Amino acid sequence: MTQQIPRRAAVGFVAVGAACAACARYGGPQFPDEGAAGSEKTTTQQDGEVLGKAADVPVGGGKIFEAQKLVVTQPEAGQFKGFSAVCTHQGCVVNEIVDGTINCPCHGSKFKLDGAVDTGPATQPLPAAAVSVNEYGELVTGGAAPPAETTAPETTAPETTAPETTAPDTTAPPGGGGKALTSTAEVPVGGGKILADQEIVVTQPSAGKFMAFSAVCTHQGCIVDQVSGGTINCPCHGSKFKLDGSVSQGPATAPLSARAVKVSGNQISLA
């Protein structure tokens, strides 16, 4: 999803959900700890965290925010897009944006400014992350805020209406809508099921309440491998997450990225 900055309100919006595999620090080829299964989708940030000035993101380029492991691009003037900075090939952190591509230093994967794969070996797009532009012209994590009566920065774009955003636990990655995941009978109450192929974990904290998250641990990008004792467990460094995706036990400090799902009959699918 994209957001354009109104003339009288520099409020932007870009949404998806979320994955992402966070395994390496920005700045050089680094790999996940041995034992990590692949990596995918997305790093979740607390809504409202200021990333920097929207004016610092060039048109036709982007900027990598190392601390948050996010990359924000501006394919066209006033159109901001946010993504996890973790490469979907083996979890390295992308380190540069050059000539219209987001580049990974480890194996040469490149991604377009809309997150799509440009050059392999990566086969999956960068997971999208929700970002906004506030009334001060600052990029912030999370959905768009109501328009404010203030003067927009010079880099304005034609006025447009931003689509509504969903709650954090119903944020779906782009292009995943309607994809069947599993049946309700396969997700136990008070437990969950890990879908390795999709790198998604579906839980049922209470009867009839289904939730879904990225299966990529937010510590260093390993894939969680079991749901037991009411927690979603990562095999690499012992991080555990509650059935609502929040951290139960470190070293992970950020919750699992949420995925939007819907239940039709006895089938659970991406919303």
Explain this structure.
It comes from Actinophytocola oryzae. Pfam families: Rieske. Its cofactor is [2Fe-2S] cluster. The protein has 271 residues and is mostly beta strands. The chain has a domain of 91 residues: Rieske Iron-sulfur Protein (3-layer Sandwich). 0% of the residues lie in helices and 32% in strands. It is built from no helices and 22 strands. The strands form six sheets. Strands 1-10-11-2 form a four-stranded antiparallel beta sheet, with no helix packed on it. A four-stranded antiparallel beta sheet has the order 6-7-8-9, with no helix packed on it. A four-stranded antiparallel beta sheet has the order 13-14-15-20, with no helix packed on it. A hairpin with a 4-residue loop joins β3 and β4. The protein starts with 11 loop residues before the first strand and ends with a strand. About 20% of the residues have low confidence.
Topology record:
Layout: E1 12-14, E2 50-53, E3 61-65, E4 70-76, E5 79-84, E6 96-98, E7 101-103, E8 110-112, E9 117-119, E10 131-133, E11 138-141, E12 180-183, E13 191-195, E14 200-206, E15 209-214, E16 226-228, E17 231-233, E18 240-242, E19 247-249, E20 258-259, E21 261-264, E22 267-270
